[in-house]
Amino acid sequence: MSGPLAGIRILEVGVMLAGPYATMLLADLGAEVIKIEPPGGEISREVGPSYFASLNRNKRSICLDLTSESGQARLGELVAESHALLVNMKPSVIRKLGLTYSALSRFNSRIVCVALTGFGLDGGDEPAFDYVIQAATGIAAMTGDPAGPPTLPGYSSADNSTGLAAALGLLAQIVSGRGGQVEVSLLDVMLSQLNYRASAYLNDGIEPQRFPHGAHSYYVPAQLFPTAEGYLALFVTHDGFWKAFAAEAGIDGFATMAERVSRREEVLSVVTVALAADTAAGWERRLRPLGIPAAAVRTLPEALKEYTHAIVTAGDFRLVGSPIRVAGYEPAYRPPPTLEG
């Protein structure tokens, strides 16, 4: 079975992470992705082969100097034969290189042009790296221990999330059958992902609080807990979960969510004492068969050793495969492209 995006051709003028991740997901689903690289190659090639492979498998590559007349001419030819172009660069560079719908529609009126930027095409050229956006949108301020400094996650959540949104916007416009300009910014995506946090403040004036061990603001108990060995993530979102957990852990009382929220510290104290009786791995083995959301905290190497179904081979590289699984279709993972002239 061919991929669901077979027959779709997408051009990418991508840099580092967000843009290349978006088009790689589309390539995994069968789209033909042509990565347009400048002389010398896209900058992420310099980071290392495994980094480049993790964002650029299943693509073709072509080297074009888009600042030259010949490069622009070749770009026009490619646009005429493609469904979409995705670019993630500064707005001024996007416009300078003619990578907008207004500049490219003369070659193909149905081309979909996706601009992935930090603050929008009209938002200026200020640097907009992942960590900068997390700081600017309040994410860092609401993350970490209450007594400690603001905290950033250990991976590029803003870039990856924006890549997903860009892929969605690109496909939506292709499905519409119309060409046009699509914009996705890191700022807008991360604000959007604060959904219920932002709504609580905008409608009820509730500012986000940091709780120890990453505790949830609405549900109790829902956080990390120390155990006899390691940490356990426990996420009790309704009274049924609590009843099953409390019976297994030997805890009495606190039957309703309202009571558990109003008596948060008492609940957390009792749960902490109970969980100290076994290891995180032991609690996971005991709680999961009961349908209780719980997981021992694993390192990345431990997770990859356990969840081997997610690992694929692309040439000489072992990578995490596509998260999108389509019945009857299995991507043929190919290695990242060499730089072609």
UniProtKB/TrEMBL annotation:
<dbReference type="InterPro" id="IPR044855">
    <property type="entry name" value="CoA-Trfase_III_dom3_sf"/>
</dbReference>
<keyword id="KW-0808">Transferase</keyword>
<dbReference type="GO" id="GO:0008410">
    <property type="term" value="F:CoA-transferase activity"/>
</dbReference>
<dbReference type="InterPro" id="IPR003673">
    <property type="entry name" value="CoA-Trfase_fam_III"/>
</dbReference>
<dbReference type="InterPro" id="IPR023606">
    <property type="entry name" value="CoA-Trfase_III_dom_1_sf"/>
</dbReference>
<protein>
    <submittedName>
        <fullName>CoA transferase</fullName>
    </submittedName>
</protein>
<dbReference type="InterPro" id="IPR050483">
    <property type="entry name" value="CoA-transferase_III_domain"/>
</dbReference>
<dbReference type="Pfam" id="PF02515">
    <property type="entry name" value="CoA_transf_3"/>
</dbReference>
